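User: quick one - fold this with S-adenosylmethionine bound?
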Amino acid sequence: MPYSLPIFEAKANATPIALEPVTGPIGELRDSHERVIRDLRISITDRCNFRCVYCMDPDVRFMRKVDLLTDSEIVRVARVAVSLGVRRLRLTGGEPTLHPTLRELIRDLWNIGIDDLSMTSNASLSSESELAAYRAAGLQRFTVSMDSLRPDRFTQLTRSSTTPERVVQTVRAAQRVGLDPVRINAVIVRGFNDDEIVDLARLARELGTDVRMIEYMPLDSGRQWDMKKVVTADEIIARIKESFPIEPLVRDHTSSPASVYRFADGSPGRIGVIASVTRPFCGACSRLRITADGKIMPCLFSTSEYDLRAVLRQPDCSDEDIAGFLAAATLRKQAGHTIHSEDYRQPDRGMFAIGG
Ligand code: SAM
Ligand code: SF4
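Assistant: Sure. Structure tokens for the protein plus S-adenosylmethionine:
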């Protein structure tokens, strides 16, 4: 029997549209551009203790708790997705370490049987013992976001009271407890932190970790993005090369979509650049996203959302219903982003509500 596939085109109160479900054996989650989904990004909260300027407005309103997926709903969806070929899960948000039962959730997701479980965090809240507990529960990789090494600028950027020193301490603690690799993400915004590109590259050498510099994307809830503020991956690499000779490495799935470089002098640490704006990697995208309120966003830039929570909360929802819904939403995955087109429409959700 056909079920309705509620779609919210851009505005959350737009009229849902009923679609034909995908029925019969599904096998893998394959989109209409022949891409297969292997990675599921799960936003487990939209709440955050930071208000990063490129992500979240200071006067943001968070989702109601009742609208958030429960842990058992998250695990159920992940289990079905894994049965359809998903191999890697990433927890994100908002700030995932604010999730009250994070350790148990990590354990339950790892126990599904997957190749990789990772998390992206602002690294301001976790103690070493908490990191060790996450590691013991099954967390493999840890990505930390840090865009400035200067305390005053860090405060300005994150609109928080945390310091870069605290974040670096957390990176070291994560390395000690065996999270591997531990990476640092830095969004480079022209006129804001582009004068720290070389300092961030030096940090990669000092910590022996990957620092990945990300092009600023038009996903900020304050809608202040402007192409003029984007520091391109080419420019980032050129600036680093002025101080540290670096050489490109062959891509592997764990570093994708970053282009990764090593230091030519053999120093530990690596540099990654994520050229989402100037060199989109959409053709190789293997990701699907679930927001904290249970919407499927097949692309970071989707202006359509697919209401999986409505399906999940039907009293007789079966795993087949979830699978058919995931498959139908995957089929609607767009070929790529259209940032450079005149018709580009930013999703209503900021990055914190999508799950970066
Ligand atoms: N709170 C966690 C953190 O900051 O790591 C996880 C969620 S955050 C939304 C995930 C990633 O998205 C972070 O690395 C952040 O830097 C990145 N991000 C947020 N807004 C962005 C934007 N407009 N352009 C590029 N990256 C962005
Ligand atoms: Fe919070 Fe991460 Fe967004 Fe910063 S980037 S406001 S830490 S969700």
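One thing worth noting: Residues 39-354 form a domain with the TIM Barrel fold (CATH 3.20.20.70).
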